[in-house]
Amino acid sequence: MNASISSANFEIWDVADIMARPLKPIDWLISEIWPAGTHSDIYGPPESGKSTILWSQIIAIATGQNWFGKKVKQGRVLVVGGEFTDQDWAARSICRFLKDKPFPNDMIKVLPNTGPMFRLNRDGEWIKTAAGKHVDEVIDKFQPLLVVIDTAAMLGMVDGSNYSATYDLAIQFQKMLDHHKKPDLPITGTTVSHTNQSSQGKDEALSWRLNYMSRNGGYGYPGRLRIMHSASTLRDTDEVAKSTGLDRRIREGGKFIAYGVSKCSEIATPTWHFTSPAIFEMMKDEGGLLLVKDGSEISDAVAKANKQSIENAPAHMENIGEMSVIARKARRLGLEVRDGVF
Which of 124, 249, 254, 310 is deepest in the core (most CB within 10 A)? Predict the structure, then answer.
C-alpha cells in the first residue's frame, strides 16, 4: 500500500508505511529554534523588540553568518510590508545590524505598502488581489528562502477578531509558498503580529507574556501554525530581571528583550523557549543587539516566576465546575493555570 493514497483533493496516510521510512533530520533555518520550510509568526506588543529580533535574523540568513552562536541556512529574504516610511528610514534601521560591513547584492528585497494579498469573492472564496499576484510573481523570480509578511494584516482584509478568517488566511499564505517550494528551496514563511494587549498587564508573568496563548488564544491563526516566536520587553519587576540583576540596569534606562519559541508542535523543546528565553540588550549607541543571558542561564529564574504565577492564579478558577478539580491537580503538578488554560 502506498504511504499516501489520493482521492480527489484528499489524502489517506498509512502510518505503517510512514514509520517504515527513514527519519530525516530536521532541516534548520536557524539551528534549534526555527525549522526551514515551516510557517510561523513572531508576535509581541508594540515596541517589544520583535521587529528588531526578526531583522537581526533576516540579516544573518541573508549573509550566512551565525545568529548569536546558532547556525543558519543562507538564502534570499523577501519582506512584504514593514514599518519603513521611506528608504532612508530603512537604511537607518538595517545598518545597525551590519556595523559598516559590506552587504551582498540581491539578497534581501522589500515590497513596501503592497496592500492586502487576499480577499473574499462573491462565492465566499479567498482569491489573490493584485498585490497578492505581485507578491507571487516576485517569489517566483526572486526565489527567497524566507518570506516575511509584516504585519499579518497584510494577508487580507478581515477584522482581527474574526479568527476563522485569519485561520483561512494562514492556509492561503501556506498554499502560496508551497507552490514555490523545491527540494533545494524549503521556503519558510513568517508573519509579524501584535499580542492581545490585555495579556500585557503589569502583573502578568514573563512566561505568560511570551506564551502563544496570550496572543489571542489557541484558536484561529495561532491554531493553524506549528511554530511561533514571541518577544516581550523585560521589566524590572520580572522575576527573571530580579534574579539576574538586570532590574537595576532597567531602572537605569537599559532596554532588554526576552525572546523565545512559544509554540513548537513538531520539534523538541527548543533551546530558547517561552519558559527559558534568551535575553538581549538593545544597544543605545549602535542600536543592535547583545545577547546577555542564554535561555539555559535563566531557566531556574523562570521556574521560580512560574511557581509564583501559579500561586496567584485567578480565584474564580475554583468555581468553573469540573475545572476546579483540574486546576487543583494542575497546580500540584506544577503547571501554570491561567483563565482555564494550563
Answer: 310
